Input
Amino acid sequence: MTYNDTFIRACYREQVDHIPVWYMRQAGRYDPEYRKIKEKYSLLEICKQPELAAEVTLMPVRKLGVDAAILYSDIMNPVASLGIDFDIVKNIGPVIENPIRCAADIDRLRPIDVDADLSHIMETIRILDRELKVPLITFAGAPFTIASYLIEGRPSKGYIRTKEMMYGEPDMWFRLMDKLGDMVITYLRAHIANGGKAFQLFDSWVGALAPKDFEYYVLPTIRRIFDELADLHVPKIYFPGVSSGELLPLLSGLKADVIGLDWRVSITEGRHRLGDKFSVQGNLDPFVLTAPMKVIQERAKVIIDEGMQSPGYIFNLGHGLFPEASLDKLRELTTYIHEYSAAAISKGVGVTR
Output
């Protein structure tokens, strides 16, 4: 099997023969084989076993035929190296034993030590670099999203403690942003050094902020991350999470190659808000996958048709896969995306370069 670089070419707005596709959380609980593994090991236990983590990463590539792999990991993994104790609790998410509530808590955070604390993740990446015939996307959680867990102590709907720190203790907030920005930069640089072929910065919950708050309290750190990683010759993706359409016009000048869109803004409108300066990725509502296959294909067709109107498009969901999603429907959807887009491109439909 030859190496499939379609995803890389789409990230760089180069010519492609078909629209590439991968799915956020494509290595996950929708797969019965993965569920059996999870009966024996927790997410964090899998991450600490490089051979097993690599196998879980490879499973959807083999089963679905996607154009990229996404590292099996969790955005919380690097914070352990800072001295944060946490667990991933079933049906809740990250739960922090020692949440950040004061300046002393921030002062106690250590610099990340990838070699000492995260060597198992680097070994997983090296294994996948040898095994994969598609690009490996690695990832990190963006500072706001990580901070929201560290401050709230667990997932939150209102982010009241987080915003309380932002508004009431801005000096403390920016010190935390600086430390988390340093963590992300070091962590992602290590990913690429060990064989990652692209990275995605997940800012899953930043859509909870008003645009002016995002611009003042968060965007400077996001810009610094991409500025300091600009020398890495790999595609760089920023996913500003759900409900983030109003933030898109603020991303102009960001040294990213791709912006991920959620399903609340169309591909066409998303490109317009971004000034058509980036490749775009997205954005099927994940829960459309509960519909009959005919409906799924109809919704996918609309998105693909919009995506092909300008160079630089990657099909994905607007957020991650959920446990009830169907493996068979995902496989069929992947085939449909490939075949429909390849036929359209061969006929000169849309813009592919």
